[in-house]
Every structure is written in structure tokens, then in C-alpha cells.
Amino acid sequence: MSIDYYENNGIRKGVLLSRYADLMKNWINDEREGYFTKQEVEPAVTNESGIVVPQLSKWERQSIPPHVSDEYRLVFVGFRGYLQGEMTEIGDQTLSKEVEILDRLIAT
User: Fold this and answer.
1) CA distance 108 to 97
2) How many whole angstroms separate alpha carbon 41 and alpha carbon 7?
3) Which residues pair with 50 in a beta bridge?
């Protein structure tokens, strides 16, 4: 396994937030598909594939009730650890807001 290298903490934080945003988009898309198809959620995010860059349509979507499948709950738990580690490494406590969001989603 290779270790990521970052020129500075600003770049490191940017990569972290980009990964976080992509994770949230994948979760929303996958849960939404499961809601409408009435099928079990199959996360696009896995340990093997990592976080994929989701393809979103340009059209507004109808809202659905918030839901976190068991599969995404596990993904969120893993990402939370990564987020906290990066938060410590770059010394940026403002990222604790994202940790709180993940905690709420994990508890859902």
C-alpha cells in the first residue's frame, strides 16, 4: 500500500474534502436508487473500488426520506476514522463538523 504525499496541508485538506464530497454524492445516489427500485442498496463505494467520482444529471431531483443502509453505515464508519486521522495530521479542528455529520448518519 502506498502512502499519499501532499505538498502542504492545504492540498491535503482539499483532497480530504473532495473525497468526502464524492462519498456523500455516492451515498445519496445509491440510497435514492434503492428507494425507487425497492432493492437492497449496493454501494458504489467499496474497499476495492474506493470512492468513485459520481456522474450526476443536471436536473433537479425529488427529495426522499433520509436513509443509511447497513452497507453505507460501514463505509461511513471507515471514512470517519480516515477523516479524523487527516484532521489530526493537518491540525484543522474545523473538520469536526464533518465528523459530526458522519456520526449522525452512522446513528441513523
Assistant:
1) 17
2) 37
3) 46
56 in any annotated domain: no
Number of domains in the chain: 1
d(CA 10, CA 12): 5
Per residue in 20-53, pLDDT (tens digit) is 999 999 999 899 889 888 899 888 888 888 887 7
C-alpha–C-alpha distance, residues 64 and 38, integer Å: 13
In a domain, 37, yes or no: yes
With H, G, I as helix, E, B as strand and everything else as coil, classify residue 50: strand
pLDDT at 49: 83
d(CA 24, CA 17): 11
Residue 26, domain extent? 9-49+65-107
| List of residues 6+ apart from 18 with CB closer than 8 A | none
Model confidence, pTM: 0.71
Indicate the residue type of 99.
V
